[in-house]
Amino acid sequence: MKRSLPLVIIAAVLVAAVAFTWVLLRPSRPDQSSTNTSSSEGPSGADPPHVRGNPNAKVTLEEFGDFECPVCATYSVEVKKIEAEFGDRLRVIFREYPLYPTPHKHALIAAQAAEAAGLQDRFWEMHDKLYENQKAWSEATDVMPMFIDYARQIGLDTDRFGRELNGEVVATRITQDGIRAHARAVNGTPSFFVNGKEAKDQSWSPEGLRQMINAALSGNSTP
Question: Would the pTM of this model clear 0.90, i.e. be above it?
Answer without folding.
Answer: no
